Amino acid sequence: MADASSIFAGIATSAQNGAPLYLQLKKAIADAVRRGLLVPGDALPSERDIATRAEVSRVTVRKAVQELVRDGMLVQRHGSGTFVAPRMDRVEQSLSRLTSFTEDMARRGMKVRSAWLERGIYPPSPEEMMVLGLSSKELVARISRLRIANGTPLAIERASLSASTLPDPDAVGSSLYATLEKTGNRPVRAVQRISAANLGDADSKLLEVAPGSASLNIERISYLLSGKVIEFTRSVYRGDAYDFVAELRLSSPDESGESIL
């Protein structure tokens, strides 16, 4: 790490530019990371040391650091301190192809693993009954996983299926779709709804980001060729790791009902 004094010095004396001190300190740290003066894995000095060198209060330091943690530039490890976050290549995910997480990451040459959060047979919730078309007497299979690529947690997937479709959730390995394909139940189309959100404490801990960090929440309903709903999945993706891409085409007169001329 470069001389910390040169990074943090002069913050208080530049207050005449009108920007709040914590924003000036945040910018100084962010600039140091972008210029390579602080590199991934470097530990920041303690809150007290930064406050002394920058001639600001510890409250100012804490606010600047918390914002950089929320932005994904810094990470805090309990009992260890604050570090420059590892650089992460963003994953570009097409919205026009119905593929599994395992297939997406394998295509990019990334090593994938999952940490199971839930796997079993349960009475369905009202939402599951409505989406999957289940009666109150039927059961639902739930599988929830933390999806990890190249050692970095990227997404939390929570899938629900009829227990008649997936009677043994323990049979699912790395890919749910591969398991469904064996029984002829792999979906052929899906409708997805994407919304922006801020992570709560539980999900942010799983994804190893600060509470309140940006996320992309995707609700997917998948169908068989017959039109039957086969899967209901709610996923939470790290906002700092994913870009979702959709191809748009000008509709033909047959599709829109109007002439394009």
Automatic annotation (TrEMBL):
Fetch the PROSITE patterns from UniProt.
HTH_GNTR
Is the keyword Transcription in the record? Answer: yes
One of the GO BP terms on file: negative regulation of DNA-templated transcription
What InterPro entries does this protein map onto? Answer: Bact_HTH_transcr_reg (IPR050679), Chorismate_lyase_/UTRA_dom_sf (IPR028978), Tscrpt_reg_HTH_GntR (IPR000524), UTRA (IPR011663), WH-like_DNA-bd_sf (IPR036388), WH_DNA-bd_sf (IPR036390)
Task: List, alphabetically, the Gene3D superfamilies matched.
Answer: Chorismate lyase-like (3.40.1410.10), Winged helix-like DNA-binding domain superfamily/Winged helix DNA-binding domain (1.10.10.10)
Q: What SMART domains does this protein's entry cite?
A: HTH_GNTR, UTRA
Name the domain of life: Bacteria
Give all residue intervals belonging to the HTH gntR-type domain. 19-87
- Provide this UniProt record's keywords sorted from A to Z: DNA-binding, Transcription, Transcription regulation
Q: Name one GO molecular function term.
A: DNA binding
Its recorded name reads GntR family transcriptional regulator
User: What species is given as this protein's source?
Assistant: Borborobacter arsenicus
**What lineage, starting at the top, does this entry show?**
Bacteria, Pseudomonadati, Pseudomonadota, Alphaproteobacteria, Hyphomicrobiales
